[in-house]
Amino acid sequence: MTDHFSGDDRTMRERMLAGDFYLADDPELAGMMQRAAVLSERYRAAFADDYETARAHLVELLGEVGEGAFVRPPLYVDYGSNLRIGARSFANFGLVALDVAPIVIGEDCQIGPNVQLLTPTHPLEPGPRRDKLEAARPITLGDNVWLGGGVIVCPGVTIGDNTVVGAGAVVTRDLPANVLAVGNPAKVVRTLEP
Fold first, then answer.
1. pLDDT value at position 1?
2. Which residues of 101-122 are buried (b: 16+ CB within 10 A; e: fewer)?
3. Distance from chain centroid for Cα 154
4. Is 122 in the active site?
């Protein structure tokens, strides 16, 4: 495995954030994932009884939480620190945001239940995959995006402002602003008035 990184002095976290291959089971990254798991559970546990305490856990967990943003637990993240949610955005139950690379959710977005935002990628070749190599590509949602329930957004995808993605769609490529997209893979079926 060391052959993959010879001559590269960066930490696995630095490699990960740069979008390069890194070792998924690195101890530093494992500690960061443990922190995220603890804060996610604290958020979930406090949510029903004391929203202000719950929100404090969410703010500590995530890279940014805009004013008026609301996330219904449970929330599942790898690290949390690479997830940014814009002002007044709403995420329903069961958001999975694998934030190995940055995930940016714009302002005024609506995210349905059980949506998955997946930044990690893995080598197709069996040897490097067996060696636990992983990389990632960022995901960006523009402002006023609506993702219906069960939508999956794949690594490296950008979705433009005001775009709507129908329930259950799998978004494998960028979507422009002001469109409705549905299906697997998601395809634009009509333009929306901005």
1. 46
2. bbbbbbbbbebbebbbbbbbbe
3. 9
4. yes
pTM higher than the cut 0.90: yes
Q: Which two tokens stand for residue 134?
A: 């992983």
- Identify any residues that bridge with 85 across adjacent strands, giving them in sequence order: 65, 105
Contacts of 153 (CB under 8 A, 6+ apart): 115, 116, 117, 118, 139, 141, 147, 159, 165, 171
- pLDDT tens digit string along 45-90? 999 999 999 999 999 999 999 999 999 999 999 999 999 999 999 9
Classify 2-189 by CATH class: mainly beta
pLDDT of 6 above 80: no
Q: How many CB atoms lie within 10 A of CB 194?
A: 8
Which entry of 122, 132, 137, 187 is annotated as an active-site residue? 122
**Mean pLDDT, rounded, of the chain:** 95
Cβ–Cβ < 8 Å for 55, 36: no
Show me where the domains of the chain are located: 2-189
